[in-house]
Amino acid sequence: MKNVVVTGATGNIGSRVALTLAARQAAGQGGGVIGFVRDPLKAAPLAAAGVTLRQGAFEDDASLRAAFEGADTVVLITAGSTLAEQARAGIEAARAAGVRKIVRVSSLKASVDGPTDATRQDGRVEAWIRERGLAHVILRGHCFMQNILKNVGSIRDEGKIYFGTGDGKIGMIDVRDIADAAVAAVESEAWDGQTLELTGPEAIDFHAVAAAVGRELGRDVTFVPVPPVAAGDTARRFGVDAWTATVLTEYCAAYAAGWGDFTTGEVERLSGHAPRSIADFAREVLVPAVRGG
Ligand SMILES: NC(=O)c1ccc[n+]([C@@H]2O[C@H](COP(=O)([O-])OP(=O)(O)OC[C@H]3O[C@@H](n4cnc5c(N)ncnc54)[C@H](OP(=O)(O)O)[C@@H]3O)[C@@H](O)[C@H]2O)c1
């Protein structure tokens, strides 16, 4: 049975991957699951579910190597302005520790000349992974449906969703499907060497998002387009760091221009189930958040 380390294990995707793998292990269907975490207190629910915690940070090479010791596979999730540096440290530590395979959660259409800094950084990361000769699967996630949770307050108070993508259609995805795809990429060698763009079932604009949310909520919800720069500025005013706000502006401009107007069948191919729709997300995640707050 192979041991798997999940980095970013307290995050949206990593926590679901770690919990799913731990459940498989508890059912006798998988090896050990290790969560690489900065804060064991924050990771207490993972430990309670059977995930072994190894504390550290990407900036601490010794902690990375210790966490990766004895692992067959690393699910490499990094985040923020230094995401490429973090990933580079993770790739080098994986090689030093004798890790066989990396499952990388990357950015949509990652490319060194992409339209956002996250896209460009992940373009570099993907090149390093391929150069280093490790077995790998690269999963490029489309825009997360969970980003809409930032609008819970305006949906509840005003029946409005503000966002900076204009009429651009986006093949947005529920992060639960990215996690399911990552688990499949860990458990099977069938996808090794592949780079897969993961999307939801349809490319939709935010007018359609608002309509779907309204249907599930049972009241009118409308989309209010704002300029991409205004979306970034608003995020900054709500306490988001400068890099993230700039990247948000860049993504909004790209999506408004149609850069994200596509879907693929990769989620179903990997996970064996259809990707969740915006109606599924609204019913199961967003509306409970709107009603619960
Ligand atoms: N938003 C989108 O639409 C979208 C689309 C595609 C891809 N992505 C990217 O996909 C990646 C995963 O997304 P996510 O939502 O799962 O991320 P997330 O919820 O923001 O979680 C990030 C994880 O990385 C950990 N982390 C951050 N800096 C670290 C460091 N220096 N050392 C060790 N751990 C560190 C965090 O730990 P703490 O809990 O300690 O902070 C957390 O566990 C991100 O890079 C995201 O930007 C996003």
Automatic annotation (TrEMBL):
Pfam families: NAD_binding_10. Coiled coil: none annotated. Residues 8-188 form the NAD(P)-binding domain. InterPro entries: Ergot_Alk_Oxidoreductase (IPR051604), NAD(P)-bd_dom (IPR016040), NAD(P)-bd_dom_sf (IPR036291). This is NAD(P)-binding domain-containing protein. It comes from Chondromyces apiculatus DSM 436. The lineage of its organism: Bacteria, Pseudomonadati, Myxococcota, Polyangia, Polyangiales.
